[in-house]
């Protein structure tokens, strides 16, 4: 197995590599912008460090969002193109799932992404089973979490600080854990994890004729 993981959904450009019998390689650079130009050389350097050719990759896991609109598209497009070129299998992994994996909490866990404009994206894990992600106004989130998770549990994600739930412990977990991404990408069922961007809401930009990008 040779698994490459990619995350360009935030301000960092991050890649990780898992090769059977070798320690994981993980790198995250806070570049802000320019993921499209930065990603390919970053991956090439990591493959060289591991003594691996791109053609030897067997699976590519890519973060799909929610996150930066442009960044999500960059990572997904690159992963799909590299998979096509190498014959590797590409799978998409959601950001909220990676945060939940990194939290390692067996009890109720609500993961929230700050979607701006007074909204958050919420996904709740109970007993290892996740709800569907949903976009909600901040004012409605606390009641929805109690409905899905009960009266006590844990919170994670960039939107956790926006709500007041005294019986829920904020884990202050907001950054992507690359080993957790590798774990989920390795275990993912490709049929259930297509490499497609996940957006908080439809893009504001429109192509000629009113089409969305």
UniProtKB/TrEMBL annotation:
Gene3D superfamilies linked: 3.30.420.40
InterPro entries, alphabetized: ATPase_NBD (IPR043129), Gcp-like_dom (IPR000905), T6A_TsaB (IPR022496)
Gene Ontology CC annotations of this record: cytosol
GO biological process, one term: tRNA threonylcarbamoyladenosine modification
Residues in Gcp-like domain copies: 33-123
NCBIfam families in alphabetical order: T6A_YeaZ (TIGR03725)
Protein name per its UniProtKB record: tRNA threonylcarbamoyladenosine biosynthesis protein TsaB
Organism field: Maricaulis salignorans
């Amino acid at each position: 197995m040779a698994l490459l993981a990619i995350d360009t959904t935030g301000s960092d450009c991050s890649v990780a590599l898992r090769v059977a019998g070798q320690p994981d390689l993980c790198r995250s650079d806070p570049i802000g912008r320019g993921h499209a130009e930065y990603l390919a050389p970053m991956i090439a350097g990591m493959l060289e460090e591991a003594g691996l050719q791109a053609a030897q990759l067997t699976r590519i896991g890519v973060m799909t969002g929610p996150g930066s609109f442009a960044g999500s598209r960059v990572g997904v497009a690159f992963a799909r193109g590299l998979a096509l070129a190498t014959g590797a299998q590409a799978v998409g992994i959601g950001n909220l799932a990676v945060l939940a994996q990194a939290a390692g909490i067996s009890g109720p866990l609500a993961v929230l992404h700050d979607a701006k404009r007074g909204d958050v994206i919420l996904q709740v894990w109970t007993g290892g089973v996740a709800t569907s992600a949903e976009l909600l106004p901040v004012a409605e989130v606390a009641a929805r979490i109690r409905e899905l998770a009960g009266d006590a549990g844990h919170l994670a994600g960039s939107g956790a600080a926006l709500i007041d739930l005294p019986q829920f412990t904020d884990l202050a977990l907001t950054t992507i854990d690359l080993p957790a991404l590798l774990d989920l990408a390795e275990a993912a069922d490709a049929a259930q994890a297509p490499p497609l961007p996940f957006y908080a809401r439809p893009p504001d930009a429109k192509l000629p004729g009113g089409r969305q990008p």
